[in-house]
Structure to design on (285 residues):
């Protein structure tokens, strides 16, 4: 018998979304790294579009959106504090899990992911629209940040020799080994040093997804992480290059497997690899 996810309520199916397209209590939101190439070419009818690097990043400092930026975004999107937010996106939902993590950081109560994201929706030949909706503005008040789900560079530094903490590198094997500074095909000049955080274990983020973009069964996910030492008794700190891929692994560990202590290191390798005075480990010498 297939093991259930620890929190199945955070996942909705494409069928569920299709049945709630006209539900005023639900906001369906597509999150893309390239909004024009994804959302702009066709999206779930009525869905709002968020740009990963504009709407969900601080545009002055390299940081997550501040309180006022997030409240403004949600208000413009017609999202109130009681709205059910359903996220989906490109790249096996890694952009959507970043938005999920941010909304949980600011304590939005009802956030869900459409399992499979754009991949599954389009594979099923479901309807797409190009019209951009204009939702009625809402008033949104974000909660006090939940800092227990965010790791800073200082927190990682203090954890380097702590056996109760598992640092989880979610990048490609080439990045983990120190051969590349970013995924193949992406700009390799943004980080001064290549390598990994010393002692980090490795599970590539999208190893948790099936061919249709949906999450693998709970028992397969558990085996994937536990066999490398990311066990439920530890605090697990995923990281990648910018924090987005790591947010996917954070979501899997915290919500699908029920790990109690998981922190996304959103500074990730861009911060670590460019910082003075922090150690780096590499297989390339």
């Amino acid at each position: 018998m297939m093991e259930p996810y620890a929190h199945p309520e955070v996942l909705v199916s494409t069928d569920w979304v299709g049945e709630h397209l006209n539900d005023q209590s639900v906001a369906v939101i597509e999150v893309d790294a390239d909004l024009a190439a994804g959302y702009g070419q066709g999206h779930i009818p009525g869905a709002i579009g968020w740009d990963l690097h504009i709407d969900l990043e601080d545009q002055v400092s390299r940081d997550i959106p501040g309180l006022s930026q997030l409240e403004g975004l949600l208000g413009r999107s017609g999202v109130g504090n009681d709205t059910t937010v359903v996220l989906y996106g490109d790249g096996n939902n890694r952009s959507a899990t970043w938005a999920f993590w941010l909304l949980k950081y600011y304590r939005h109560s009802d956030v869900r992911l459409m399992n499979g994201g754009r991949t599954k929706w389009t594979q099923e030949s479901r309807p797409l629209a190009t019209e951009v909706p204009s939702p009625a503005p809402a008033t949104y008040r974000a909660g006090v940040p939940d800092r227990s789900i965010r790791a800073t560079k200082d927190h990682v530094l203090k954890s380097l020799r702590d056996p109760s903490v598992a640092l989880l590198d979610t990048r490609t094997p080439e990045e983990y080994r120190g051969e590349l500074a970013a995924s193949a095909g992406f700009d390799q000049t943004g980080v001064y040093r290549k390598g990994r955080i010393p002692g980090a274990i490795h599970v590539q983020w999208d190893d948790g997804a099936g061919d249709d973009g949906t999450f693998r069964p709970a028992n397969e996910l558990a085996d994937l992480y536990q066999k490398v030492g990311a066990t439920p008794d530890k605090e697990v700190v995923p990281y990648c290059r910018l924090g987005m891929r790591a947010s996917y692994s954070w979501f899997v560990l915290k919500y699908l497997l029920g790990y109690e202590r998981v922190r996304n290191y959103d500074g990730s390798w861009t911060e670590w690899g460019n910082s003075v005075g922090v150690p780096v480990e590499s297989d390339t010498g």
User: Anything to note?
Assistant: Strands lie at 11-12, 26-32, 48-51, 84-89, 111-114, 165-169, 201-202, 235-239. The chain has a mean pLDDT of 95. The longest helix spans residues 244-256.
